[in-house]
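Please annotate this fold before class:
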Amino acid sequence: MNISETIGYLLVQVARAHRAKAQQMLAKHGLHPGQEILLMHLCDCDGLMHSEIAQLLDVTPATVSKIVDRMEASGLVRRQTDADDQRVSHVYLSADGRKLIEPSELVWGELERESFVNMTAEERVLLRRLLMQVLKNLT
């Protein structure tokens, strides 16, 4: 088997290229890949708990702590201890974090356009359906 000819290998290459392009585009706004996703989730539902963030981002609680620590140090989010349970903290967008929502959305829009520029709407719908099936098969 020539691994470089497998669909799985191609998926890995696409994911790497997408992440590299995202990193390049997000760096212009002082963001690292993944941070913009958390910002957008917090924009939709501010005050998420670490466990909720872990589930949304499909990462471990330890990874959430690292992400939030870094973003808090950059002034993009703030933590607040739960009034009823001191063991729980909620993560909120800061004013600076809120300012990066629109640029984050623009980056994702540009990534979508660049990624699928030579595909018809029907091809994009089919690709999405097929990728969702692959994801379902693997999870």
Summary: Strands lie at 48-49, 77-81, 89-93.
